Amino acid sequence: MIEIEEVKARGLPHHVAIIMDGNGRWAEQRGLVRTAGHQAGTQAAERLIRFVGRQLGLKYLTLFAFSVENWNRPPAEVDFLMDLLERFIAEKLQEFIGEGVHLCVSGDMKGLPVRVQETIARAMGETAKNDRLNLNIALNYGSRQEILGACQMIARAVQLGELDLEMLDSDVFSKFLYTKDIPDPDLVIRTSGEMRLSNFLLWQAAYSELYFTDTLWPDFAPEELLDAIASYQERDRRFGAVAEGNVV
Ligand code: IPE
Ligand code: IPE
Ligand code: MG
Q1: What residue ranges of the chain have pLDDT lower than 50?
Q2: Least buried of 2, 16, 111, 244, by fewest C-beta within 10 Å?
Q3: What domains appear along the chain, each with residue ranges and CATH number?
């Protein structure tokens, strides 16, 4: 197991994004209902946020909490998840304020229950000036929907003469995404053994390093984040070029 000081000394990624998967299977393995897995998953998220903010010192952490496709789950599970998310944000707000955590959300806010929208808006407002850790929760998030939404906004801006089509490049496009204020993730982690992106950050993860682990999300301990970052630190990120020293 790698020590935190060693990981820090090697240089941290700017942004780590995590697909928190496996809550249901965690509960099933224990003979519990799926919602018990979500409860335990929330505790794992809480533990990780504290570790990242207080000890590790990452600048950006994105947690995928609810996808646009997750509305297809049974209504009771969806309702439970919405309540859990709202309670989580409301209960953590004072801690976030005190510890310099800036909360932001990526996703279609308008599609959320009004009380969830209100709690998020309050938390975002009250933590807006914080900059120690930017905690981005992907909530009612779908990457294709995000990209389509950006295309619609761009088309409208061109129609209104506010944007010159010739000026549209990757940087300009990125400014129309939910993540406009956030750098692309350097590292994307998915728990629970699934090796897919499930409509998560398809544009932003173009050159992200990927890390998959069989650990189910409620069991994901801060030490495992260190392992994932250590693995990232050993990768050679070439961005399509050739590695240094290999020039012919
Ligand atoms: C991830 O755990 C949490 C959400 C998607 C909200 P799952 O609920 O997907 O757990 P599994 O994949 O069924 O085990
Ligand atoms: C992805 O997990 C979404 C979140 C972790 C919030 P899912 O469990 O919904 O993804 P699939 O259905 O296995 O692709
Ligand atoms: Mg799942």
Answers
A1: none
A2: 244
A3: 9-142+184-232 (3.40.1180.10)
